[in-house]
Amino acid sequence: MHAGTKRTQSHFKDLLNGASINIVAKVLAAALGFISSLLLTRHFGAATIGIIAIVVSIMNIGANFALCGMGTLTLKLIPTFLTRHGLKATKQLFRKLLMLSAINAIIAMIAITLFLSFDSTKESITESINPFLPGFLVISAVGVIICSNTLRGLGDYISFSLLDVIPSLLLLLVVLGSISAGLNNETFIHYYFFIYVGSFILALIMVNRYFQKLEHKQHEPNCLDSIRSSQIYKQAIPMFGISVSHILIQNIDILCIAFYLDQKSVGIYSIYIKLVAFTTFATLAVNSMFAPKVALLYEQNNLKTLRRLAKQTTLLSTAVIASLSTGLLIFHEPILTLYGVEFLLDKATLYILLCTTVLHASFGSVGFFLNMTGQQNIFLKIMLTAVILNTLLNLILIPLSGILGAAVATLITTAVWNTLAMLVIFRKHGYTLFPTRLFA
Fold this sequence. Notes:
Elements: H1 3-44, H2 46-67, H3 70-84, H4 87-118, H5 123-126, H6 132-154, H7 157-181, H8 185-192, H9 194-214, H10 229-260, H11 263-278, H12 281-299, H13 303-339, H14 347-362, H15 366-372, H16 376-401, H17 403-429
Helix pairs in contact: 1-2, 1-7, 1-12, 1-13, 2-4, 2-6, 3-4, 3-6, 3-10, 3-12, 4-6, 6-7, 6-9, 7-9, 10-11, 10-16, 10-17, 11-14, 12-13, 13-14, 14-17, 15-16, 15-17, 16-17
């Protein structure tokens, strides 16, 4: 067997191994989360769920701004630093990424706390919580993401996957403990959010233990370079813009439906999106392992192996999504009936959303590919174009066709930005990620 093919198979086998572990972790986390949510809802009521949802939303927004793209950048820099500069430099990089994100998180914490303290609508949010709490949680959330992506970049797939399970397990323990102790709603809410603090502490321990494990395997190269904070921000800010663009594209249709139509239409469309998201479950695990391998192979200038791996990963992701989408297409009527007969009235919308997710998979992980190969600035321009296009299409099509128009807008936008990204990759590397000529 050709040496290049052997290397590709080795990387692909490692990717499959990591993805399999992560899929099991995600399934376990989902099961634990379902049990916890059921117990939580029945014992503490919908109002408590609402407060928690608001705080989590505020925390997630704050964490997204605090990371400023450094979550994605961690996936790129950690594996390449380990290969080029060795373990000592990688540790220094990890500490710097953690420090910079923590500084950003403190700024976000102050802003969120001030907003909740002085905003005129604060009564609906802070009757049961300390206004300092959501901002404080941003620090923990950001820390978990940096640690998690560090473990993924280092190739510690077991610890990375455990960080999917640990929050769900801690939540179940907190819910069971709170019910047994007879805690009131307000006390439970504060205990609930210590889950994030506990997850951050455990994530730090995991990263430190894996670094210690690598000390016995790594030989430090003679060259030891440091990376300045300005260099980190220079690479991270475009990735932050890309992340914000994705968030906007994912929510513009919902906002426009709410503006032009009614809450019922929003509810139906949201359920369709959740059902379609189920088909991407396994591929998210595959692609999460793909990103650091792209960065590593590109750094090593192992371009032929990178090409083969990218095409094999695309083939795997497309096959899985197409299979799950076909299953949903076959059984969608009995599934939708469980939600109510009104969810059967706009089935064409579901069909288009399913086509969109299969189309997206067939292009490959073009976003990860561009980010991990130093082309994040070009990808940012593509995503900003996609945001503008998606907004215009939703404004035009939703008044004409309702939620079907929103689905069509998503399909067109997905096709356009993936095509643009594909053309950039072809121009730069001479190939696309379409799963053809796998061993070329």
